[in-house]
Amino acid sequence: MNKILVCLKRVVDYNVRVRLKPDNTGIVTDGVKMSINPFDEIALEEALRIKESGKADEVITVTIGNEDTQQQIRTGLAMGADRAILVKADQVLDSLAVANIFLSVIKIEQPLLVILGKQAIDDDSNQTGQMLAALWDRPQATFASKVDLSSECVTVTREIDAGLQSIEIDLPAVITTDLRLNEPRYVKLPDIMKAKKKPLEIIDIDSFGNDLTPKIIPKNWSSPKSRSKGIMVDNVDDLIKALKDKDLVG
Amino acid sequence: MFKVLIIAEIDKNVLNTSTSKCVSCAMELGETEIDILIMSDDCSRAATAATNIESVNRVLTIEAKHNAEPLAAVLAPQILEVAKNYDYVFGPSTTFGKDLMPRVAALLNVGQVSDIMEVQSPRSFKRPIYAGNAILTVEVPEGLIVVATVRIASWKEAAKGGNANIQDLNINIDLPAHTRFISLNSEASERPDLQTAKKVISGGRGVGSAANFDLLYKLGTKMGAGVGASRAAVDAGYVPNDMQVGQTGKIIAPDLYVAFGISGAIQHLTGIKDAGTIVAINKDSEAPIFEIADIGLIGDLFEVIEELTQKL
Q1: DSSP label at residue A222
Q2: Between helices A128-136 and B72-83, what is the axis angle to 10°?
Q3: Which of B 243-282 lie inside 8 A of A, CB atoms?
Q4: Which tens digit of pLDDT belongs to each residue from A32-81?
Q5: CA of B26: how far to CAs of A47, A109, B29, B170, B283, in Å?
Q6: Interface mutation vs chain B, best among A16, A39, A102, A126, most B CBs within 10 Å
Q7: What is the pLDDT of residues B84-95, one digit of tens each?
């Protein structure tokens, strides 16, 4: 059976303007809208499309976090995932620990393909997929904007600084998604009802026996330097004059 | 004395300036011995350029046919062989470094510090999170190799005038064949590269069409400026992805940034926060970009582009 494993992270919704806690120990998340990391939502959409095209049989989501993540997991099931795994954890984990946990899940599920977002919009690390591919000793195709799956390999178009790169990788493999890969579907009410009956397996993080010692330790949160509000000019001549005063145009 | 290995980024056998910016970051660590690793099918040109960067101790090369294209799965095991003898392994926070460095970190069984914007101490670094809306200081425990990507918009190129030696390395290990390069579709451009240009002008959805972007290209040529775009303009198909500026596109720090018809979503603003002077032209006086612009002009972007093209 061809399985696709999709990793979903719960993050502060992308529309929320984040605020620091007054004591600089983190970001305010109490009462803040939370969502599936948008890149992971794209990953799930891609997995569903591959399944719908007949090239995969089952889409499984995996999430690491506390009970609160069930809200996002149910959304994933409502989008169309067949079943979900929650690796229950209360501690903060770095990307290497997360990759190690996903590897443990891979060893159980034996997926053909693992798809996840290229980065999570909270820590913006952009690491987990690459680390997972390294630990699994399998190919990686990061920043995917097009995925074409055949029986033994995948052709992936990658968005890189120089343009669009196309590579071919053997299966099984890890793919990380970029924004233009697809547009995720909206969840309909009947699907939310159906999702409640779909299987959600809860595994305790300690049962895998991974070394979870943090190798990157978050210490202090602060505000970025803000730019002060500038001036408004009325016309192009004044604009050119202002730029000339700053020696920015000849 | 810290030993630092910097993984060079090479484009068509030319050394990318991001490498020199990584050297600047490494120099902040304190007393260091900095080596640069060049991996390509033809290293000579990039290696010579690297010897010229100040404070560089040695330039190491691994010249091989399989290094012709930068495939992370192929490069990482070779880097592992070299990196074991270093305290730090740095790469640029470009798509090249972002793809490669976490793979290297995982093989070394260490974490990765992404996007170093400031070195606080040899084991403590500042980095942006939440699209630059917060800054996080992270610490790497003693005894672990520090693998990191360097946020290139935060660092200037190191000075020239070095005279490092070049040393060819012979790495004899089995490399995976599971990842194969097919093609690179690059929009050939005579305009300055976005990430190194001193001036950048940029268009949003307001530009309206691919054809209208020609007006920006014309103005860019006149000004000697690179041309970028917002995500909305790329999504609409007006311009290719390599022009996108923002959280998920390119993070840039030109002396002058001029935004035409860009409303200023936080994801875009994070890509331009380090620009010297930001100019915004928008017909909507409520556009959020005016909050951070140094100079704002409310008006029709086509009229402004035309007038600027005439008068500059």
Answers
A1: E
A2: 80
A3: 247-248, 250, 255-256, 266-267, 273, 276-279
A4: 999 999 999 999 999 999 999 999 999 999 999 999 999 999 999 999 99
A5: 41, 42, 6, 26, 44
A6: A126
A7: 999 999 999 999
